[in-house]
Structure of Aldo/keto reductase:
Amino acid sequence: MDIVKLNNGVEMPILGYGVYQVTPEECERCVADALSVGYRSIDTAQAYYNEEGVGRAVKKSGIAREDVFITTKVWISNAGYEQAKASIDESLRKLQSDYVDLLLIHQPFSDYYGTYRAMEEAYKNGKARAIGVSNFYPDRFVDLAEFCEIRPMVNQVETHVFNQQVEPQKIMERYGARVMSWGPFAEGRNDFFTNETLKAIGEKYGKSVAQTALRFLIQRGVIVIPKSTRKERMIENFNVFDFALTDEDMQEIAGLDQGKSLFFSHYDPEMIKWLVDLVKK
């Protein structure tokens, strides 16, 4: 397993297992399967409502807590210093752990400055080994990074072959932050799994479209957290360290970049209003 070193020296697996859209009922089983395959990084969030499943699976696995890297995220409804502080403790309770390895702000809405202050405090108190953000576009990332005490170590954003985050990654790296991909398979959009470019390149190495896409991101230094509820797919996604793409392969895949989201834009007022209304209900 390849490791990346965050800007505070904490080491994190470059490949992990994500539990977005994994139901609370099946989360424990899925995480247990992922751990048995060899994954040692698990990504969850308050808004996924499955932190308990992650905690139970890690606890029952017999793997030492320090050998599993757990990420969770503070949701919009818990924004602000006091609410975020309480929610962090609640997440730790659900995860059955005294700390998380990486704590992120899930979305840049409501009082995320207050949220970040609570996270900085959690970091200082040993409740989080690293802190960062998620879904922060470069403008908001720079604003927060310039005015916070502890600079974000990670920014988890939509990153896949059709939205490669090339320029944003350069900005994050200037501030010492790593890009972490959500949706590395674009959730199958744009006919991802039948893409001819990825298919042709993968065939040269006896690899699938999914493995080729993951390898592309990994070689760019992007942290990836593919999700599947099927153990055979978990195994497939894990087996991406026994081959390397050539410069020519990388350039060809780079040509797939459309430079925009396949899901939503934070610059769209209607989308933001929809998301905020969901939280207020």
The mean pLDDT is 96. The chain has one domain: 3-280.
